Amino acid sequence: MATFVGFAVLVTALIHLYLWKRLVRDTTRPGRWRKAGGVAALLLALLVPATMVGTRNGSYWLAWPGYLWLALMFYLLVLLLVLEVPVAVAKLVLRRRERAATGAAGEPAPVPAGGTGRADTATTGHVAEPAAAGPTATSSVALAEPPAAPVEAESAEPPAGDDSGPRAAGPQDGPTGDRPDHDPSRRLLLARGAAIFAGLTAAGVTGYGVRTAMGPPRLDRVRIPLAKLPRSMDGLRIATVSDIHLGPLRGRAHTERIVAMINRLDADLVAVVGDLVDGSVAELGAAAEPLRDLRSRYGSFFVTGNHEYYSGVEEWVREVDRLGLRVLQNERQEIRARGGVLDLAGVNDVTAAGTGLAAPADYAAALGDRDPSRPVVLLAHQPVAAHEAAKFGVDLQLSGHTHGGQMVPFNLLVKLQQPVVSGLGEVDGTKVYVTNGAGFWGPPVRVGAPPQVTLVELRAP
């Protein structure tokens, strides 16, 4: 844990350093505005770990500002990284144009063929006498008489206000001594334009994400055929919800809305597949209370997610059981309906460790020694559990955990860890359905992955 916290602090510091460089240093000149931007970047960098620690210790007032900044920071980082390429190209084009202009201005005037007589006239004010016609006419310039007195026009100082003569190269001049190879004002304008675009876009995306996350879950219906499902059980419906995440920003009203939505479905089974809470029973017991009103024909079931293990798993298992949900702790339940039988199994989260109610996932205990002719549906919080479940011939696994990525493009990173991020997939012959979840973790923001309650309808072949 200490290693993880240290790594997270280091990454946060590096991200804020990058944001300060692109949003403050590159867009301001030295002075009070740059100093103010540096102080703001430091305070925002400290806000992130303060929010993570504070919300777990009851300082819920940190949740809104801290988590909103976390989302805004994420999208600022993504947008600025994407803009690095076009901004670099624009800078290269500007630099080449300036260098081309500098080179053109520094080229000497062309000298007519046949000698330098015109140039000498311009600089010394002396015109060579023409030589007499004869055999030596070709060397007349060389034989011309020198002037009576030396002319010092080349070394004379130009009159005040006259900038037609040569000047010494300044510290801002380029290689030719005429001008720099870039225009600082243009570079400043380019940096400000990129910062404004990134800031406005990140704010707009974050605002849209807040509206989506705080709104009602979307109802999705999916039909999944199971080869072993008896014809009499065709159409069996399982209301599936995950990642409700009661906590600093979600309370009892959130639970009531989800329960009412599920009850309107009139489902045969209800499956709550983990991450119900982010806090203790003492803090969130009242918020979870509406779960006792869930209605279904053949029962409501629950399996633990990783966040239950951060929140006092043993207390929550007892509390959820008290509210009328059957907690499947590495075990299975026969569902006899419509003249057929289906095995509904559940395993603890794969991150669990310990004994008793906190024991890790045990697939043999939940799936071993069963009738292989029956279809089996496994409730497992994380999709990655399907790799083990497939070894026991599981027909369908219902999972959550991923939030569908919650904030695009974070879904691309989730894909590196989980075999299915959202919707229906297949792992080693086992079908896996992953719901986006009805809540959120951390930032109250969802982009590209709206909150979801799913009605899974099982179909016979």
Brief rundown of the structure:
This protein is of the alpha/beta class and 461 residues long.
Write the layout of secondary structure elements.
Blueprint: H1 2-23, H2 32-55, H3 63-106, H4 117-124, H5 140-143, H6 184-214, E1 218-225, E2 236-241, H7 252-263, E3 269-273, H8 281-288, E4 300-303, H9 313-322, E5 326-327, E6 331-337, E7 340-346, H10 363-367, E8 376-379, H11 386-389, E9 396-399, H12 410-414, E10 423-427, E11 430-434, E12 452-459
Parallel strand pairs: 1-12, 2-3, 3-4, 4-5, 7-8, 8-9, 9-11
Antiparallel strand pairs: 2-12, 6-7, 10-11
Helix pairs in contact: 1-2, 1-3, 2-3, 3-6, 7-8
Please provide a written account of the structure.
The structure is a single chain. The model is unreliable at 115-178 (pLDDT under 50). It contains twelve helices and twelve strands. It is elongated, with a radius of gyration of 37 Å. 34% of the residues are buried. A six-stranded mixed sheet has the order 1-12-2-3-4-5, with helices on one face. It is of the alpha/beta class. Helix 1 crosses helix 3, helix 3 packs antiparallel against helix 6 and helix 7 (252-263) packs parallel to helix 8 (281-288). The longest helix has 44 residues, at 63-106.
Q: Which properties best describe this structure?
A:
461 residues, alpha/beta, 6-stranded mixed β-sheet, 12 helices, 12 strands, 38% helix, 14% strand
Total count of strands: 12
Shape: elongated
Average pLDDT works out at 86
Largest sheet properties: 6 strands, mixed
Which consecutive residue ranges, at least 5 long each, have pLDDT under 50? 115-178
- Secondary-structure-based class equals alpha/beta
Gap between N and C termini: 48 Å
Can you write the helix and strand succession as a string? HHHHHHEEHEHEHEEEHEHEHEEE
Summarize the amount of helix as a percent range: 25-40%
Q: Percent of residues in beta strands?
A: 5-15%
Rounded to an integer, what's the Rg over CA atoms?
A: 37 Å
